[in-house]
Amino acid sequence: MLDNKALTEFVEAVVRRQFSDAVVDHVAVKPDLDHDGDPILRVTVVVQDEHAKLDPAKMVETSRSLWFELGDAGVEDFPIVSYMTKSDAAGLREPV
After folding, report:
1. Which of 15, 19, 24 is nearest to 70 (CA)?
2. Which label site among 9, 68, 72, 89 has the fewest CB atoms less than 10 Å from its CB?
């Protein structure tokens, strides 16, 4: 299993392959459990404000790629991916 820093770097690399670096500001990853107690990864992709309208096909492919590539790396946690703009992330009580 990857440590949290390596896991975040791994996930961010997969996300950046789907979207250009100009689109993605940063990616946050938080291990968690779903309502059944199964391990998941809460992945938050923070995009630049001017790129708020993302291509839905790329969003779906990102989730799919993450699931397969994490599995290949030995990570069984299911990725739950959400997206927000940098300005929305700045308004949160807890930083993303």
Report:
1. 15
2. 72
Q: Is 37 left (phi over 0), alpha (psi -120 to 50) or beta?
A: left
In a domain, 95, yes or no: no
Q: Quote the domain boundaries for residue 81.
A: 4-90
Q: Is the pTM of this model over 0.85?
A: yes
pLDDT digits (tens, 9 = 90+) for 54-71: 999 999 999 999 999 999
Q: How many helices (H) and strands (E) does the chain have?
A: 3, 3
CB-based burial label for 29 (10 Å; 0-12, 13-18, 19+): buried
CATH of the domain at 59: 3.30.300.30
Which tokens in the block code for residue 16? 């950046």
Q: In what order do the strands lie in the sheet with 78-85?
A: 24-33, 39-47, 78-85
96 within domain boundaries: no
